[in-house]
Amino acid sequence: MQRIGFIGLGIMGKPMARNLLKAGYALVVYNRSRPAMEELLADGATLADSPKAVAEQVDVVISCVSDSPDVEAVALGNDGVIEGAKSGLTFIDMSTIAPATARKVYTALKEKGIDALDAPVSGGDIGAQQGTLSIMVGGEEAVFERSRPIFEAMGKNIVYIGEAGAGQVTKACNQIVVAMTVQAVAEALTLAKKSGVDVAKVREALMGGFAQSRVLDVHGKRILERNFQPGFKLNLHRKDMNIVLQTGRETSVPLFGSAQVTSMMDALLAQDQGELDNSALATLYELLSGLS
Fold this sequence. Notes:
By secondary structure, the protein is an alpha/beta fold. It folds into two domains: 4-163, Rossmann fold (3-Layer(aba) Sandwich); 169-288, N-(1-d-carboxylethyl)-l-norvaline Dehydrogenase, domain 2 (Orthogonal Bundle).
């Protein structure tokens, strides 16, 4: 069985790494902060002090970090994966980054004999914990097929999309749908609340019809319970929407809805609400509607 390195043990990365341990993989981990590493050490992982040190010990390196510059630093920077990897290593980035960055990393690693896949995920912290993530993959198909058992330890809906960067394009599309559906659910439930009807019953009725969605289920419940502890932080979704809008500019695609919901996210960030769950968009609707 391949030895795997995992870099980035945040809300998503830590449970994903745990699922690899549960599947029987030997795991070497690195994270910028120590406590998460020590949790994985207790679960049976080995610790490393840099991405380079991770790459020196494994056959596959997985990264799950915050943004494009972080992936570049992990993969290509000083003490990065590229400095510790032997020819034939596979680098799988499961972060959400710009497609252009994914292609840059792929090309740089390929020149050193390192295979690379961009494999962002969807499903939030619940999907990461339960091993039910949707994984969208770009890169060489043969490398994807070789890596499929690793993906199956972390996700259920695993789709090979196409060449390098294709996974990240798919994730940008995913984030459009999620953001605008969160907006729709927040808008609908605010209208129900302002109209004086039972919001929980409205959600129940919508769940049985064509409006049913995973967002209405999970985020609608969060809104009803006023539970905005992050499953996916608003500031990270805002970062993803920047990738969406950037990709739209690069491809000359007008993204009117994406631009609108991004502006609403900006309004919440201006109120220092970025650490809340992205379903906190409902609080802005409520504020503007005179409900808070």
